Automatic annotation (TrEMBL):
Taxonomic lineage of the native organism: Bacteria, Bacillati, Actinomycetota, Actinomycetes, Bifidobacteriales
A biological process from GO: DNA catabolic process
Keyword Nuclease: yes
GO CC field: cytoplasm; exodeoxyribonuclease VII complex
Residue ranges annotated for the Exonuclease VII large subunit C-terminal domain, each copy included: 196-415
GO MF terms held by the record: exodeoxyribonuclease VII activity; nucleic acid binding
Protein name (database record): Exodeoxyribonuclease 7 large subunit
Quaternary structure annotation from Swiss-Prot or TrEMBL: Heterooligomer composed of large and small subunits.
Domain OB-fold nucleic acid binding residues, every copy: 96-173
Keywords of the record: Cytoplasm, Exonuclease, Hydrolase, Nuclease
Region spans: Disordered: 33-64
Family as reported in the entry's similarity comment: Belongs to the XseA family.
InterPro entries in alphabetical order: Exonuc_VII_L (IPR003753), Exonuc_VII_lsu_C (IPR020579), OB-fold_nuc-bd_dom (IPR025824)
Length: 472
């Protein structure tokens, strides 16, 4: 008797609905007699091999002889996990190779020459599939980056040790730059052109914040990292958390509302937006234009702490400070109380040392004043100046007498010269001065006319005369 085993569970109903075959039907022979028989069959596989696992040949004796019938299992005769995993692998191994389209969400190259890609559905962001590439295909995958849209040719593969489904890549082709990544890049250029990322727009963080506004997911590790490290560094710090969705469609409006709410609170000194690491698609909410503009308009300093050090979003560019992780954000926003106490001790020591040096120097200066002979015997300091003053006084008196004598002689000489040139001397010698009626001095006969009245100035007195005759 043969029965059909209809296998659904390992794929899931949602994925089966997209398959050409709604059911994976495999024929199984009579049930094995015991669990040990199942285990014996499972042990025939090499479970210690590395990826990609070796698939049993359906034509081998193992496939022909060890083909359990699932419907005949029971609590007394269950399948061991190894047999279930092997059965799943056998079902998947019958699938042909096919082309797969998606967007690279994560890509990691390993030293062993393998590359692991998390491929996301271009239309449904929460549906992903792990793609594994080895050898030449792994080398080919090195040219691709997070956000790229690709076509991958390969076939499904089940790693039996962990019963983990993946897609074994045989060829990878680029469709073009990922739509999401391209949109973010275009938005970055636009916002940069508006000056939203300019350094002169950045706000300085307060040196000693008292109250932090934290935007994060509820019960997130990021919240614990920020609070724990902030409290360790500054136990009196206050933190107000605003819980938001940190991925998906609700992320941007939640973050915008939280930023505006905390910015309107006058008690908030700085805002931290924190989220743990994630795939590229998980972080796109923090590259939303509305989020970027809300942060750019914020009057409170904003710190971005999204993902890990290698994760970048547009929020990182517009924020006043970008921290590599939530822990780093707490350390960069909150001062370390132990460092501050140590700094206070250093300043106290420096102040005491400087004060001691100042007191010592002033005491030395005072001692110098007290031992200075000019201060202990002030007259001895004035004595040479007194002697010099006497000498200068004597020189001044001598110079003054000499100057007076010289000037007296000069005056006497000038007086004698002036007296000799005086008109009175001329009059004393018998001459007279003749003036006309207007008082003009006459010195030539041509200035006279008959009958003209003249005034005569003599040695003693004056007289009036009339001209009778004029002789040239």
């Amino acid at each position: 008797m043969r029965r059909n085993f209809i296998f659904h569970g390992f794929l899931g109903a949602d994925n089966l609905s997209n398959c050409n075959e709604k059911k994976l039907i495999h024929n199984f022979s009579e049930p094995l007699d015991s669990v040990d028989s199942h285990r014996q069959a499972g042990n025939m596989m090499n479970m210690n091999s590395e990826e990609p696992p070796l698939q049993p040949d359906p034509s081998s004796s193992v496939s022909r002889q060890v083909v359990p019938r699932a419907a005949m299992t029971s609590p007394e005769h269950p399948w061991p996990v190894t047999m279930a995993s092997w059965t799943f692998s056998q079902a998947i191994s019958t699938w042909p190779s096919f082309w797969l389209e998606g967007q690279i969400q994560e890509i990691n190259a390993r030293r062993a020459g393998s590359t692991y890609i998390t491929l996301a559905d271009s239309q449904v962001s929460n549906t992903t599939l792990e793609v594994v590439a080895f050898g030449a295909t792994s080398a080919q995958a090195a040219q691709f980056h997070q956000g790229d849209r690709v076509l991958i040719h390969g076939k499904p593969n089940l790693y039996q040790r962990f019963t983990k489904l993946s897609f074994l890549a045989q060829e990878i082709r680029r469709i073009g730059q990922g739509d999401l990544k391209q949109q973010i890049e275009e938005l970055r250029k636009k916002l940069k052109g508006e000056g939203l990322f300019d350094a002169d727009r950045k706000l300085a963080l307060p040196e000693f914040p008292h109250h932090i506004g934290l935007i994060c997911a509820p019960q997130a590790r990021a919240e614990g990292d920020v609070k724990r490290n902030a409290m360790l560094r500054w136990p009196t710090i206050q933190i107000t958390s605003e819980y938001v969705h940190v991925q998906g469609e609700s992320c941007p409006p939640d973050v915008i509302a939280a930023v505006k709410k905390l910015d309107a609170d006058p008690d908030i000194d700085v805002i931290i937006i924190a989220r743990g690491g994630g795939a590229f698609a998980d972080l796109v909410g923090f590259s939303d234009e509305g989020v970027v503009r809300a942060v750019s308009e914020c009057s409170t300093p904003v710190v971005s702490a999204i993902g890990h050090e290698d994760d970048w979003t547009l929020l990182d560019l517009v924020a006043d400070l970008r921290a590599s992780t939530p822990t780093d954000a707490a350390k960069r926003v909150v001062p370390d109380v132990h460092e501050q106490l140590e700094l206070i001790d250093q300043l106290r020591f420096t102040l005491q040392s400087d004060l001691q040096s100042l007191v010592t120097s002033q005491l030395q200066l005072m001692h110098g004043y007290l031992t200075n002979p000019h201060l202990t015997h002030p007259m001895s300091m004035l004595e040479p100046y007194s002697q010099q003053l006497e000498r200068l006084s004597e020189r001044l008196n001598a110079s003054l007498h000499q100057y007076v004598d010289s000037e007296t002689n000069a005056i006497t000489r000038s007086q004698a010269t002036l007296t000799a040139l005086s008109p009175q001397k001329t009059l004393d010698r018998g001459y007279s001065i003749i003036r006309d009626e207007d008082g003009h001095v006459l010195s030539d006969a041509s200035q006279l006319s008959s009958g003209q009245l003249l005034a005569l100035l003599l040695r003693h007195g004056s007289a009036t005369a009339r001209v009778e005759n004029v002789h040239d």
